[in-house]
Amino acid sequence: MDLLGSILKSMDKPPQISDKQKALIKSFCDFQVEETVGKFLKNGNAKEYKFPPMDQVHRSIVHESAEVASVLAYTFGEEGVDRYIIIFKREHAPSEDQLSTLRRGEEWNDEIAKKLQHSRAREAIEAEEEEKSRKRKLEFVPTSDYKQKYEHLIGKDAALEAARKTEANSNYGCVPSENKKDQRSIEQTLADIRAKKQKLASQNEKSSAYNDPNNTTP
């Protein structure tokens, strides 16, 4: 066995804590936490109480005592660095803004609460105004129509007459579409086309004969 091993073997082991001693330590911690929570509840002006940073075992004791005393307990901070607990009376429960601020590691006080409250109120007013503006656009109704606008220029009767819906009138060339359809049969249509071609050819022959200088036919 080497020298270092013999030295370590000869050294006394660190004292071990028995289960009974652990129970006594836990009881003492429980007593301290319960006493702190009790004083907090008796203080009528206190709304919250912040415990110093502690390990997970001690935090579990605080949570147990808070549950028994019917108070709210929230944990903040970084584990192994500055993890701590704040207890609140139920009638003074923290808002979501306060919890979010504390979880970000930022400070929370009445001034910050007022600023956030004003910001929330301003956002609510802006949202309400935007909604009203949107509804006004959807429900817009003209204050006057064009008949009233031009009544002083063309007269009331003329304005009303101009506003009427235009109706078809056969006296003014409004011919129904049914009357515009070709009612002839195919045979009749072909016969009419041939007749027009013959007439056109005859007219062309007469025109050519008239313009021919050698033609002596009167």
From TrEMBL:
| Pfam families associated with the record | R3H
> SUPFAM superfamilies from the entry?
R3H domain (SSF82708)
Q: Which GO terms describe its molecular function?
A: nucleic acid binding
Taking every annotated instance into account, which residue ranges of this chain make up the domain R3H? 27-91
Q: Which residues form the signal peptide?
A: none
* Compositional bias annotation for Polar residues: 200-218
Chain intervals for the UniProt region annotation (Disordered): 166-218
What is the name attached to this protein's record? R3H domain-containing protein
- Give the organism's phylogenetic lineage: Eukaryota, Metazoa, Ecdysozoa, Arthropoda, Hexapoda
